[in-house]
Specification:
Length: 148
Amino acid sequence: MRTTNQNRGQNPDFIAVVTCGKLTVRSNPLAEIEIAQTGLTTAGLRTFANLMGWNVSDIAKAIGTTERTLIRNEEKLLNKQISEHALEVARLSGGGVAYFGDVKRWNQWLDTPNTQFDYYPPRELMNTIRGRELIRRVITGLQYGFTA
């Protein structure tokens, strides 16, 4: 399921989406830290979720929070931890969509039980730092032709 470089250029910048244009995938990491410490808004998360075809429950689970927190904080900034998780999920999704070619195939892969995750679907592990790291490692392995 490799994509060409042409397809990769067509994918949205999910970091820009989740930060409402304050950052891009090429932004200075220090700027990303500052944005995370200040906090993201739910507006960017809702836009990201819509692009991904996810509902509030999906995005809440992916970033390790509850639907209630996202709904309750609609007018406020999210805390540092939730903001950092949202940035990581956006970055991971950008890499996943780039590799798999589109959001639909990325979501299908996320929902398919995988031997490398002890037969859990990758989406089940996305809500933890270590889980996102494992997902990233598997995608990198796929990119370079490594299989289990």
